[in-house]
């Protein structure tokens, strides 16, 4: 259990994975905006953007790239030395490691800011989670996990998205197949590169949303926030031709109430028994129903944009866990939330301090 804090005491949060564009930087910016936190950042790359300059971290450390056990031990050493209260994984690889090694931290009273092992395991298999939600009478796109070109036979929902399954990684290798012949080719292409594939019905509607659902460790839904993505900006899509678009991880767009979308996302989080942050991406079908195509049981790359809108997810959860506080969750500030790139100079001398 997290330790009890003294009145006015800052919560110390370790954020491993603070490279450019990382979830770690998003969480760090959100907590810095809220105030009342001591932030420690780490990364395995000496050129990681967050290691240098005034990114809001009180301390930063370069850690060695090493096997999961040794990597977790490095983080634990830093956490104990800096009297850390919570660890927020800021990269997908760190998320996977801490999901397996969380007991190392939690038995010492350090909160690991992750969903439960069960939820993470369920969401790792896209075909299985799709089948489960269908059993719960929640509409989902047709989805199938495949390991070879022969497994494509019988899949009839074209066009479809072909991508590595969640357990294979390689999220940048995402394609659209217009028919079975293209799907077989793409599955074989990914297999040759070491990935199993997921086929998923392409939802031919450009009203796409990313939705955050916040649930307490007890499972109670604390609130949700929805952004309708802009898909006409070069930063916002990774694949585009004709009327087909695959969005990128650089979400930007309009945050508003969107009650029907949020209600459906909350139904999904409740059905999956989420007990932390969950990010659900989906599109509206021809009947205006929100269909999820990607469910990640973690904080989102839009964490800071949501904080700007007044829905600061890591702050709300940490206050709930450490101070048993329930800050009021007001309707988000409606409007467009845009993003770009920041640049910085790092001298040779400064680089050597982390190298």
Describe this structure in words.
With 355 residues, the chain is an alpha+beta fold. It has three domains: 11-113, Rossmann fold (3-Layer(aba) Sandwich), CATH 3.40.50; 142-201, 2-Layer Sandwich (Dna Ligase, domain 1), CATH 3.30.1490.20; 204-337, ATP-grasp fold, B domain (D-amino Acid Aminotransferase, Chain A, domain 1, 2-Layer Sandwich). The protein is built from ten helices and 17 strands. It has helices spanning 23-34, 68-81, 92-106, 117-124, 126-135, 180-192, 259-271, 303-308, 313-322, 348-354, and strands spanning 11-16, 37-43, 59-62, 86-87, 111-112, 143-146, 160-164, 175-177, 197-201, 208-215, 221-229, 237-241, 244-247, 253-256, 277-284, 290-296, 335-337. The chain has a six-stranded antiparallel sheet, with helices on both faces. A five-stranded parallel sheet has the order 3-2-1-4-5, with helices on both faces. Helix 1 links the parallel strand 1 (11-16) and strand 2. Helix 2 (68-81) packs across helix 3 (92-106). It is globular and about 60 Å long. The mean pLDDT is 91.
Give short descriptive properties of this protein.
Dna Ligase, domain 1; 10 helices; six-stranded antiparallel beta sheet; 355 residues; Rossmann fold; 17 strands; D-amino Acid Aminotransferase, Chain A, domain 1; single chain; five-stranded parallel beta sheet; alpha+beta; 3 domains
So, the CATH homologous superfamily of the largest domain? ATP-grasp fold, B domain
Number of helices: 10
Amino- and carboxy-terminal Cα gap: 36 Å
Outline the biggest β-sheet: 6 strands, antiparallel
Strand order of the largest sheet: 16-15-10-11-14-17
Total DSSP E strands: 17
Give the helix level as a range of percent: 25-40%
CATH class of the largest domain: Alpha Beta
Radius of gyration: 20 Å
- CATH topology (fold) name of the largest domain: D-amino Acid Aminotransferase, Chain A, domain 1
Query: Which residues sit in consecutive blocks of at least 5 with pLDDT less than 50?
Result: none
Structural class: alpha+beta
- How does the overall form come out from the CA principal axes? globular
Give the ordered list of helices and strands.
EHEEHEHEHHEEEHEEEEEEHEEHHEH
Strand content: 15-25%
Q: Output mean pLDDT.
A: 91
How many domains make up the 3D coordinates?
A: 3
